[in-house]
Amino acid sequence: MHDFQAPPDLFANRTILVTGASDGIGRAAAISYASLGAQVILLGRSQEKLAAVYDHIEQAGYPQPAMLPMDLAYATPEQYQQLATMLTNEFGHLDGLLLNAAVLGDITPLEQYEIGTWDHVMATNLRSNFMMIQGLLPVLRLAQQANIIMTTSSVGRQGRAYWGAYAVSKAGIESLCQIWAAELGNTSRIRVNCINPGATRTLMRLHAYPAENPENLRRPEEILSLYHYLMCEASAGVNGTSMDAQPVS
Ligand code: NAP
Predict the structure, then answer these.
(1) Spans of all domains in the chain
(2) Which atom, in ligand 1's list, is nearest to the CA of 26?
């Protein structure tokens, strides 16, 4: 799967929603899915950054994307229901959902962890993933086969001092992925899996490790094979797993 070679039309006629598509790994994944024929829906907070990704995709001549500025930390169940209705009316079905958006919060001891930051991280990184899947199930069920990818981290598999709400939210993602996969796997055509991107050259990584030389890290564009594999039929039967996009050091 790490050497999975995506054929050029892998995602032709597919509609894929990517959260956190305005920057980092989500931006690279959205552009890559579009380059392989998908109509991508770009979700992020910053309208300006989303517009830059939109323009990039349009100028490259890939299928026309859609832009969805939305703050996941504050989204309500009604907003997710409206989103499902909009996607059904505009696209007919949703074939893929890459749940990638997240914030780092503070790197600080739990003893000093600020409660407001805790709530914001948990709402963005964990609660929104639960609510998004719950809200979008009706439009995901309209696809012949729908693939959901959630985003974990090595600190979600083994807790690490000072990583606070971020680590707890990612541990929750691992569990949420397993539960959705178990509940949906045998009764519908929806698969749910998790990717740990590993150390990748993005703004989040820079904030987490300011002293690190980014030149030593892979760029988001270099870790996408697994994002292609789990989003397509090559991974049929794979459900409820958590995989690494690159070797974990
Ligand atoms: P990033 O460069 O900081 O990008 C984060 C993205 O999430 C941005 O597009 C941002 O949108 C969006 N976002 C944040 N809060 C949001 C909110 N409330 N509502 C909507 N969108 C929101 O991060 P990244 O490094 O690419 O990380 C992507 C994923 O990989 C995350 O889940 C992260 O935990 C995981 N991960 C990353 C690494 C790494 O080394 N980079 C390692 C392990 C796991 P705006 O720009 O519009 O604010």
Answers:
(1) 15-234
(2) 26
Identify the residue whose C-alpha is closest to ligand 1 atom 21. 44
- The CATH number given to 15-234 is 3.40.50.720
Amino acid at 248: V
Q: For the whole prediction, is pTM greater than 0.85?
A: yes
Taken in order 244, 247, 203, 172, is the CA torsion positive or negative? positive
Q: Is 204 in the pocket of ligand 1 (CB under 6 A)?
A: yes
Q: Is 54 a catalytic residue?
A: no
Please tell me the distance between residue 204's alpha carbon and the centre of ligand 1 in angstroms. 7
Given a contact cutoff of 8 angstroms between Cβ atoms, the answer to whether 176 and 220 are in contact is: no
Nearest CA to ligand 1 atom 6: 20
Q: Phi/psi at 40 (nearest 5 deg)? A: -100, 145
By most ligand atoms within 8 Å of CB, the mutation choice from 202, 206, 221, 244 for ligand 1 is: 202
Inter-helix orientation angle 164-185/115-122, to 10°: 30
DSSP state of 72: T
pLDDT tens digits for the chain (249 residues)? 778 988 889 999 999 999 999 999 999 999 999 999 999 999 999 999 999 999 999 999 999 999 999 999 999 999 999 999 999 999 999 999 999 999 999 999 999 999 999 999 999 999 999 999 999 999 999 999 999 999 999 999 999 999 999 999 999 999 999 999 999 986 669 999 999 999 999 999 999 999 999 999 999 999 999 999 999 999 999 999 999 999 766
Nearest to 145 by CA among 14, 54, 31: 14
